[in-house]
Specification:
alpha/beta, TIM Barrel, six-stranded parallel sheet, six-stranded mixed sheet, binds guanine, binds zinc ion
Length: about 675
C-alpha cells in the first residue's frame, strides 16, 4: 500500500494520527493467525464479528427473512441489492419511505450491492453509476457499494486495464458525492496481479469503508482456486490493511478457510438459496445432490429433525426452505470453526485439511505457499504446535523463516568436532534430552557441537525447542523418513560443505566414540545451555543481540519441576525469561535496556506519540492510533521496545499487529505492554 499523506503522522505532533473524515464505520483487529484475522466491524446498526457471512436477501423473494436468520444462525448482518430495489416500483417507494432497514424489517447491519453483477450477467442495467450512489444514500444501508465494472477471468490485459480505469473513475466520482454514507470500493483487475494490486492501491487512497474483491464468481464456480489465491493475494498487497475486505459471491463453505487465511473478513452469497432451489446441500467438503444421498451426514437442527425420504416427499417451497436452512447452518458453522482456528493458531492446518476435499483446492496450496515471503511478514513468531497435515505443510511460511533465520542469524560455535544425529524415529523428547547420554559421552572425549538431521533440514541443537521444530506433531516414523529425504540429504551436504571445523561425524553408536577417541580427542569447551541462550537471542532479536545481552556474569535459574532454564540473570539482574514450551525469550526491563543501547533504531522498536508514552510508562497497552512508526522486521508475538520520538524507552511489550497494520489502524491494540518504564 502506498500511504495516503493524510495518514502519515507528523513528527512533532502530540496527538494520535489524524483520522480521515470521521466515518461511522470502525474496524478493529482483535485476534489473528497470520493474515487471517478475527475483527469487529462497528456500524450504525451494531457490529459484525468477522469472519462472517452476510446472506443475500432478495427483497422480492424472502425464503428466509433476516430476522429469522438472526434467530436461527445468529446472523449479525445481511446484504441486499439496491439495484433490485431501485428498479421495482413497489420496493423503490417502500425503501425511500422506510429505508432499507424498514424494507427488510431488520435492525442489524445491512450492506447493499449496486447492480454490477446484474450488468455482467444480463449485459445492461438501467441505472447510471451516480444514480445508484444517490439512491443508496437515500435508503441508508450501513455500507453501500459503488457500481464497479465486473472484470471476468477471460479478459485480455488491455480489457482488464480499461475496466480497472473505469472502476477507479467511478470510485472517485462516488467519493465526491458520498457525504456521510459509507461505501465499499470494489477491487477489479481480472486475473492480472499487477492490475489487482494497482486497483487496490488506488482505492485505498480514497475514503472507502470497505473493499470487496470482485469479479471472482466465475473463478469460484469453475473451481479455479489457484487463480482465486492469486487474485486475493494481489488485492491484499495493495489494500490498506486497516480496512475490512469482502469477497463478493463467495458463499461456499469449501473456500472459507482458505479465503480467511488470506485476509478476507466477510463473505456474501446467494448460494444457500440457489443450491436449495436445485435440491443441493452444502457441506464443508463440497456439495451433494439430495437425489444422491441416503442419509444426512449433518447434525444441524434440520437434519436432526428429518430424513432424506421425508425431504424428497415434501412439496417444493417447504423443502427449499429446509435445505436453505441446512445450507446456512453449515456455512455459519464452518465460519465458527475457522474463527476457532484463528484463536487457536491452527489456521494453516484447517486450510490444508479442508483442501483435501477437492483436487483443485489442494492444488491451490502450491500457489498459496509460493507467496511465502509475503505471508511470512504476517506469521506469528511461534505457535502452540506444528501439525504435519501433508507434504504441503513443509512449505508453510514459518518453516522458510526458521530455515532462513538459522542461515542468517546464527554463528556456529567453533568446536573442533561436529556430531550429527539422525532423526531416530522414536523420539518423544527434544534432541538434547533424547541424546543426553550420547552427548555427555562425546563431551568426555572431545570438544563437539551437535547438529540434528531433521525433517526441516539441519538444525543445530541450540534450536531444538524452537517453533516449528520443537512443537512439531508428526508420526515419528514419517519424521524419520522425511529427515532422510533427498532434499534433506542435499541440505545436509550444503551445510557440511560450509563447516570449517576439523572433523564431522554422523553418530553411529559406540563405534563413533571409538573413532572420536582416535581422531579428535580434545577438552570440551562447548556449553549447550549458554550456546542455546546466545542462539535464541540472535534468532529472536537479530544479529548483535547475544553480544549485547550476555556481557558479564550469567546465571541460569532452572525450573524445579523440569530442570529447564526459566530466568536469566546477568550480574544478578533478571534480564530475560525463557518461555516454557516455545524456547523464546520474554524481555525484562534490564534486558530491554541492553538491547536498546546496543541495537540501533528502528530495529526492535515501536515509536509512539507523546500522548501514548505517558500511559505506556504506566503499563497500559499501545493503541494503533498512537503508533508513529514500527520496525518492519517485527512479527506478531514478537517482543518489542516501545520508545518515544527521541528514542527514550518507555515500555516493553508484545506485538499484536505488524508495522503496516499498526501504522494504518486507527483503532485497537497494536502492542500489549508487559511492563512500563518510569
Ligand atoms: N457480486 C458478485 N461479484 C461482484 C462484483 O465484482 N462487484 C459487485 N459490485 N458485486 C458483485
Ligand atoms: Zn444439516
Amino acid at each position: 500500500m502506498i500511504k495516503d499523506q493524510t495518514r502519515t503522522k507528523g513528527t512533532t505532533s502530540n496527538a494520535a494520527k489524524p483520522t480521515e473524515t470521521e466515518s461511522n464505520i470502525k474496524f478493529e483487529l482483535l485476534d489473528r493467525d497470520g493474515l487471517g484475522r478475527a475483527c469487529r466491524l462497528y456500524t450504525p446498526h451494531g457490529h459484525l464479528d468477522t469472519p462472517t457471512l452476510l446472506p443475500v436477501i432478495n427483497p422480492n423473494d424472502q425464503v428466509l427473512t433476516a430476522g429469522e436468520m438472526r434467530k436461527l444462525f445468529g446472523t449479525q448482518g445481511v446484504i441486499t441489492n439496491s439495484y433490485i430495489i431501485y428498479k421495482s416500483e413497489r420496493l423503490h417507494e417502500n425503501a425511500l419511505q422506510k429505508g432499507v432497514h424498514g424494507l427488510l424489517d431488520f435492525d442489524g447491519p445491512i450492506m447493499t450491492d449496486s447492480g454490477t453483477f446484474q450488468l455482467f450477467m444480463y449485459g445492461r442495467v438501467n441505472v447510471q453509476p451516480q444514480e445508484i450512489i444517490e439512491f443508496q444514500k437515500q435508503i441508508k444501508p450501513d455500507i453501500g457499494t459503488i457500481l464497479d465494472v465486473f472484470g471476468p477471468a477471460r479478459q485480455t490485459y488491455e480489457e482488464a486495464q480499461e475496466i480497472v480505469k473505469e472502476t477507479l473513475k467511478r470510485a472517485k466520482d462516488a467519493v465526491d458525492i458520498k457525504d456521510g454514507q459509507a461505501f465499499a470500493g470494489t477491487v477489479q483487475g481480472s486475473l492480472y496481479p499487477d492490475l489487482r494490486e494497482h486497483c487496490a492501491d488506488e482505492l485505498s487512497k480514497l475514503p472507502f469503508e470497505m473493499h470487496p474483491i470482485g469479479g471472482v464468481v466465475p473463478v469460484i464456480e469453475q473451481y479455479l482456486f489457484s487463480d482465486l489465491v492469486k487474485v486475493i493475494i494481489a488485492s491484499k498487497k495493495g489494500l490498506d490493511p486497516s480496512r475490512p475486505v469482502h469477497l463478493f459471491g463467495a458463499g461456499h463453505p469449501l473456500i472459507f478457510p482458505l479465503a480467511v487465511a488470506l485476509g478476507c473478513d466477510t463473505f456474501d452469497s446467494a448460494s444457500y438459496i440457489k443450491y436449495a432451489k436445485d435440491d443441493r446441500l452444502l457441506f464443508p467438503e463440497g456439495t451433494k445432490k439430495l437425489a444422491q444421498l441416503e442419509l444426512l451426514p449433518c447434525l444441524c437442527p434440520v437434519c436432526n429433525d428429518t430424513t432424506v425420504p421425508e425431504l424428497r416427499s415434501m412439496d417444493g417451497p417447504e423443502r427449499i426452505k429446509l435445505l436453505a436452512k441446512h445450507n446456512l447452518y453449515v456455512c455459519f458453522n464452518e465460519l465458527v470453526r475457522v474463527k476457532e482456528a484463528i484463536l487457536e493458531g491452527t489456521l494453516w492446518e484447517l486450510v490444508e485439511m479442508r483442501a483435501r476435499a477437492h483436487p483443485q483446492l489442494l492444488h491451490s496450496l502450491k500457489e498459496l505457499y509460493s507467496n511465502w515471503k509475503y505471508l511470512e511478514h504476517f506469521e506469528p513468531i511461534s505457535r502452540k504446535r506444528f501439525l504435519y497435515v501433508g507434504p504441503e505443510s513443509m512449505q508453510r511460511p514459518e518453516i522458510k523463516r526458521f530455515v532462513n533465520r538459522i542461515k542468517d542469524r546464527y554463528d556456529r560455535p567453533k568446536t573442533k568436532t561436529i556430531v550429527m544425529f539422525q532423526e531416530p524415529g522414536n523420539r518423544t523428547t527434544s534432541y538434547e534430552e533424547h541424546f543426553y547420554s550420547e552427548i555427555s559421552d562425546v563431551q568426555k572425549i572431545t570438544d563437539a557441537h551437535f547438529v540434528c538431521q531433521t525433517m526441516f533440514g539441519p538444525v543445530p541443537i541450540e534450536f531444538d525447542g524452537m517453533y516449528p521444530f520443537g512443537q512439531s506433531v508428526v508420526d515419528p516414523e514419517l519424521a524419520r523418513e522425511l529427515a532422510s529425504s533427498p532434499k534433506v540429504i542435499d541440505q545436509m551436504k550444503t551445510y557440511s560443505h560450509k563447516l570449517t571445523n576439523e572433523f564431522t561425524i554422523i553418530w553411529d553408536g559406540e563405534q563413533t566414540l571409538e573413532n572420536l577417541k582416535m581422531l579428535s580427542s580434545a577438552k570440551n569447551m562447548f556449553d549447550i545451555a549458554e550456546a542455546r541462550m546466545r542462539a535464541v537471542a540472535d534468532y529472536q532479536f537479530g544479529p548483535g543481540a547475544a553480544e549485547a545481552l550476555f556481557k558479564g556474569e550469567l546465571k541460569f535459574v532452572r525450573s524445579k519441576n523440569t530442570g529447564k532454564i526459566r530466568n536469566i540473570l546477568l550480574d544478578g539482574k533478571h534480564i530475560l525469561s525463557l518461555s516454557a514450551g516455545v524456547s523464546l525469550f520474554t524481555m525484562r526491563v534490564p534486558g530491554a535496556r541492553l538491547l536498546h543501547d546496543a541495537i540501533p533504531k528502528p530495529r526492535l522498536r515501536v515509536v509512539v506519540a507523546p500522548d501514548s508514552a505517558e500511559f505506556n510508562r504506566k503499563g497500559k497497552s499501545v493503541f494503533s492510533k498512537f503508533v508513529l512508526s514500527c520496525d518492519a522486521g517485527l512479527r506478531p508475538g514478537d517482543e518489542v521496545l516501545i520508545t518515544d520520538e527521541e528514542d527514550t524507552l518507555v515500555a516493553i511489550g508484545r506485538m499484536v499487529l505488524i508495522d503496516l497494520e499498526a501504522e494504518a489502524f486507527d483503532m485497537g491494540i497494536a502492542v500489549r505492554v508487559r511492563e512500563g518504564i518510569k
